[in-house]
């Protein structure tokens, strides 16, 4: 008996060691590529480090955060980011879901549609921005040429303060939508057929099936898609960098671009890191809230 | 898998032999010839030098590779290399706007010892081009590369057009001629937009470097300045207000559609396509516009003058060597700098449209025979004034550019924009 217990412990110990041996390289890699930069950025945000005086000490506590919160440009950037993210995520989801539903019913040439839809996603955001910058060039771009031959007025897409942010959002939706389509289409394909067959027997119409079967069953996939896109959009940097440099005025200066300006144009790595940390906290908070709401709605559903 | 001594010894031996193989390959790498890497602005000057690089390689065996990108991306890309343990770029093209920041951050090697060791003669360089790049008695961080003073490029055919002349006389009571004041220039620009079927001015209003550089011409021409005699910010003055009001008027009523978000490239394309009457820009853009292959619509029709009002923005680029490179790379970089700024190479470059920084090149007979307008160019250089150069020049450019963009887009009054720009400048000067 005593020997059997001993053998069991030894076997468990070997298993434990083997498990760690397999996991350790991955964990170390994670610590290096994720943990270290995060920790360093955290220290930077409370340090006095600038590019002109590259020294961490003295630590200044929350001074960098306080100076940022007192800056009206920060609040402008935050508000722009919230509006931009909301519009792009809703746009991507609504259009993406529509296309995914259409593809779900399509039988012929499905791979071709998917291949075409993947093209924008495969392009780098910088290339996308450069292409759209040329297309939207007010004098020589094709967009205004098409407007003109359609009898519509030529527009200054990226130079009009009230229009620039939404032009950028439209470009973003164009590129990111394909990711949403692919995820939702996969989700739709995985849905069981039985509830639909039962609904058809009960005489449910198409929109009723969509509303009472498809949407509830798709909720976990939709939630994941929305949260991934929300995080993506909150971090948007490439598009304003190439398209507008945050202008005209401050009309497209979203939070990531604000952080970049603080760090590299203002030469204040500490303030840039503080802005980046605020961005991280907002995204984390959004993620936690979103999952909490999702879990609650699912557990509520389970009790019914 | 069991962990015993044998396994550990095997792993250790494998790691040691792996390291030995890697180590053995290092001496072979060190023996490779040096290649100089430079991040260069994608402008004609870069292409002119690039075409001559095979000569340098043939003479010295040192290979030079240019990575060409647009100006707005250069600063960040350089800073990330200069703050790294070792810089990939081992010879630097440095804008005068960074001539305060880079040495203050300790990123550049002092070139004075190189000059003394090689007995390099700096006397042919126009003194203002050295001063612009922060030369002091004790230290020299940058050797002038080329200047980019700004002047007015205008369409000679349009200003000489009889129908337009008559229409202008009827509309304003004045003769249509090359403007000599800022007010006249903006008036003609608006007139051309309304009557000549072209934009009166191809303007680069994107916030940051494009609009800050462009506005500086208006400021200096209106008699304003960034700093007063005591070195304090002085943008909330009547002259600055006049300059900004005229700038906003021109960008809203004289310039091309989309001017508020346009860059230098946009304005070049517009002028080249024959869709603009004028452009406040770097004087060395003239040979590009005169190129019948690249710009057939306007070749031979474009003239150069000093900025109406008498003073334009003056700037320049210099060559530097990063501190975080090896001594061998630094020696190779210095060899390259001496070669590229020598009289012979400078003349060759000038014959292709280079903007010289050496006085002996402006006086060269072959250069003047090919480009008679170099006389006007010398005036443009001589009358140019500089953007404030200090540690935070790049940040100030961004701050000023934001205020100009707000004013140009009608989101801020000129008074409010100038006050914010002036306070911002003083804040950075005090930092």
Pick out its properties.
heterodimer; A: mainly alpha; 0% strand; B: mainly alpha; D-Maltodextrin-Binding Protein, domain 2; 2 domains; three-stranded antiparallel sheet
* CATH H-level superfamily of the largest domain in chain B: Periplasmic binding protein-like II
Round the Cα radius of gyration of chain A to an integer and report it: 25 Å
Shape of chain A: flat
Q: Can you tell me the CATH architecture of chain A?
A: Orthogonal Bundle
Indicate the proportion of strand residues of chain A: under 5%
Largest interface: A-B, 33 and 42 residues
Radius of gyration of CA atoms of chain B, rounded to a whole number? 25 Å
Oligomer: heterodimer
Instruction: Give the termini distance of chain B in whole angstroms.
Output: 62 Å
**Fraction of residues of chain A in helices?**
over 70%
In the CATH hierarchy, the third-tier topology of the largest domain in chain B is known as D-Maltodextrin-Binding Protein, domain 2
The count of DSSP E runs of length 2 or more, i.e. the number of strands of chain A, is 0
* Helical run tally of chain A: 12
Integer count of domains of chain B: 2
Q: CATH superfamily name of chain A?
A: MetI-like
Strand order in the sheet with the most strands of chain B: 3-9-4
Task: Report the CATH topology name of chain A.
Answer: MetI-like fold
Membrane topology (chain A): Multi-pass membrane protein
Main location (chain A): membrane
Subcellular location (chain A): Cell membrane
Keywords (chain A): Cell membrane, Membrane, Transmembrane, Transmembrane helix, Transport
């Amino acid at each position: 008996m005593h020997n059997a217990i001993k053998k069991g412990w030894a076997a468990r110990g070997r298993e434990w060691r083997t498990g760690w041996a397999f996991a350790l390289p991955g964990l170390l890699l994670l610590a290096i590529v994720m943990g270290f930069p995060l920790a360093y950025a955290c220290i930077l945000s409370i340090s006095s480090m600038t590019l002109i005086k590259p020294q961490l000490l003295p630590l200044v506590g929350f001074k960098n955060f306080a100076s940022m919160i007192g800056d009206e440009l920060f609040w402008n950037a935050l508000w722009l980011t919230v509006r931009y993210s909301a519009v792009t995520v809703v746009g991507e989801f609504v259009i993406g879901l529509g296309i995914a539903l259409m593809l779900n019913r399509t039988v012929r040439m499905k791979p071709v549609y998917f291949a075409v839809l993947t093209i924008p996603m495969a392009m780098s955001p910088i290339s996308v921005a450069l292409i759209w910058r040329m297309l939207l060039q007010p004098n020589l771009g094709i967009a205004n040429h098409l407007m003109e031959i359609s009898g519509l007025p030529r527009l200054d897409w990226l130079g009009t303060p009230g229009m620039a942010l939404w032009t950028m959002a439209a470009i973003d939706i164009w590129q990111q939508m394909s990711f949403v389509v692919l995820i939702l289409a996969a989700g739709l394909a995985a849905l069981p057929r039985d509830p639909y067959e039962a609904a058809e027997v009960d005489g449910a119409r198409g929109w009723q099936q969509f509303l009472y079967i498809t949407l509830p069953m798709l909720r976990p996939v939709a939630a994941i898609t929305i949260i991934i896109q929300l995080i993506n959009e909150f971090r948007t940097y490439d598009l304003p960098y190439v398209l507008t440099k945050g202008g005209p005025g401050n009309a497209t200066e979203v939070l990531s671009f604000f952080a970049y300006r603080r760090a590299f144009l203002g030469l204040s790595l500490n303030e840039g890191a503080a802005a980046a940390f605020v961005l991280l906290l907002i995204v984390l908070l959004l993620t936690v809230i979103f999952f909490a709401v999702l879990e609650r709605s699912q557990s509520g559903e389970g009790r019914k | 898998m069991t962990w015993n001594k044998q396994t550990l010894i095997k792993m250790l031996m494998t790691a040691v032999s792996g390291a030995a193989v890697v180590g053995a390959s290092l001496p072979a790498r060190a023996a490779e010839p040096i290649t100089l890497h430079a991040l260069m602005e994608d402008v004609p000057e870069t292409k002119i030098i690039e075409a001559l690089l095979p000569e340098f390689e043939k003479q010295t065996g040192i290979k030079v590779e240019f990575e060409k990108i647009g100006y707005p991306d250069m600063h960040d890309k350089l800073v990330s290399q200069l703050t790294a343990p070792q810089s990939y770029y081992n010879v630097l093209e440095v804008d005068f706007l960074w001539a305060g920041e880079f040495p203050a951050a300790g990123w550049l090697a002092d070139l004075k010892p190189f000059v003394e060791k090689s007995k390099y003669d700096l006397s042919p360089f126009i003194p203002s081009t050295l001063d612009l790049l922060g030369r002091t008695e004790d230290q020299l961080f940058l050797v002038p590369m080329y200047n980019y003073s700004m002047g007015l490029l205008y369409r000679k055919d349009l200003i000489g057009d009889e129908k337009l002349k008559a229409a202008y006389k009827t509309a304003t009571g004045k003769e249509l001629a090359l403007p000599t004041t800022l007010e006249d220039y903006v008036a003609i620009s608006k007139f051309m937009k309304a009557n000549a079927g072209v934009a009166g001015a191809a303007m680069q209003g994107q916030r940051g470097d494009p609009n800050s550089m462009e506005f500086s011409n208006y400021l200096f021409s209106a008699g304003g300045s960034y700093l007063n005699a005591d070195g304090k910010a002085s943008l909330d003055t009547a002259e600055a207000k006049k300059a900004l009001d005229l700038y906003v008027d021109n960008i809203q009523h004289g310039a091309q559609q989309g001017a508020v978000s346009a860059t230098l490239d946009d304005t070049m394309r517009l002028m080249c396509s024959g869709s603009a009457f004028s452009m406040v820009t770097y004087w060395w853009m003239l040979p590009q516009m005169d190129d019948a292959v690249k710009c057939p619509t306007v070749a031979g029709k474009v003239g150069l003058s000093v900025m109406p009002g008498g003073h334009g923005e003056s700037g320049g680029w210099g060559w530097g060597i990063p501190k975080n490179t090896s001594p061998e790379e630094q020696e190779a970089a210095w060899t390259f700098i001496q070669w590229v700024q020598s009289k012979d190479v400078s003349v060759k470059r000038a014959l292709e449209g280079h903007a010289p920084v050496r006085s002996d090149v402006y006086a060269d007979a072959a250069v003047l025979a090919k480009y008679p307008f170099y006389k006007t160019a010398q005036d443009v250089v001589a009358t140019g004034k500089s953007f404030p150069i200090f540690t935070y020049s790049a940040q100030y450019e961004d701050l000023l550019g934001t205020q100009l963009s707000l004013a140009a887009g009608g989101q801020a009054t000129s008074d409010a924009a100038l006050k914010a720009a002036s306070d911002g400048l003083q804040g950075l000067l005090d930092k």
